[in-house]
Design a protein that fits this description.
With about 250 residues, this protein is mainly beta. It is built from 2 helices and 17 strands. Bound molecules: copper (II) ion (CU).
């Protein structure tokens, strides 16, 4: 038996009625069908750094005791974080080219960005176009969250100590949007906005993973705030787990 919604849909289609005439919606790209679990592959890699680490000074929060009091000793700016074996943290890795022309649905869950001890955490993160970015202030200090996009709308919003979360979205792709805070000049975060879900940020071990990729020939880009960008061409076959490593040098 046909369901009631089916009949309504047919009736709407036949008469073309739907209330007041609205401007025609822009044609949308087809939504990607659910990935065929048997055909997708993945790219797994490690990002390393070798050479002389770019100089960076400890952060000076002396002017703001409520920030400084939350730290002991020199405050690492966190801009170039390299492990013992050269593992490079906070690299944003994403598929730059090669994906089929589809619209990829953004997750319903928010990506979290925290401000703690007057530092953005995480420092580097990715979010999909239209996905919620939920920004918290866990400090006893007022912050003013201020992204500096080139391709999206700029805004800045004050956030009271331990205040309500700010929930924001970006509507265009952009690699990367720098976030600053109008109150604390040292604060930085970098947000990559992607129209697809194939991106990753390296952690302490320098590794990244891009999962559930349709088979294809891809150009990956690895972005680092101080060390620049690198590209790599990678071909992924069905069910293949491909290795792709980046090596930053100085
Ligand atoms: Cu701040």
């Amino acid at each position: 038996m046909r369901s009631l919604p089916y009949f309504f849909a047919v009736a709407l289609f036949l008469c073309g009625c739907g209330g007041d005439s609205k401007p025609a919606e822009e044609p949308k790209k087809a939504v990607a069908p659910p990935a065929d679990a048997g055909a997708v592959g993945s790219i797994n890699g490690k990002i390393t750094f070798s050479g002389e680490k770019p100089a960076s000074k400890p952060l000076n929060m002396d002017a703001v005791p409520s920030c400084a009091n939350q730290h002991k000793g020199p405050i690492d700016p966190g801009d170039v974080v390299v492990g013992k074996a050269g593992e490079l943290k906070n690299v944003f890795v994403y598929v730059k080219a090669g994906l089929p022309q589809r619209q990829w649905a953004a997750p319903q869950t928010a990506v979290e960005l925290d401000q703690k001890a007057c530092i953005y955490s995480p420092r580097v993160l990715g979010v999909m176009v239209g996905q919620d970015l939920a920004i918290s202030n866990n400090d006893p200090a007022m912050h003013n969250v201020h992204p500096l996009p080139k391709n999206n709308r700029e805004w800045n919003t004050s956030q009271a100590p331990k205040g309500e979360k700010l929930v924001k979205q970006f509507d265009k792709e952009e690699v990367m949007i720098t976030f600053k805070c109008n109150v604390h000049p040292w604060m930085r975060a970098y947000v990559g906005v992607m129209a697809h879900p194939f991106f990753s940020v390296t952690g302490d071990d320098g590794s990244f993973q891009l999962k559930d990729l349709p088979p294809g020939e891809y150009t990956l880009e690895a972005w680092h705030e101080k060390l620049g960008t690198q590209e790599l061409k990678v071909t992924v076959a069905a069910k293949e787990a491909k290795a792709a490593d980046f090596a930053f040098k100085r």
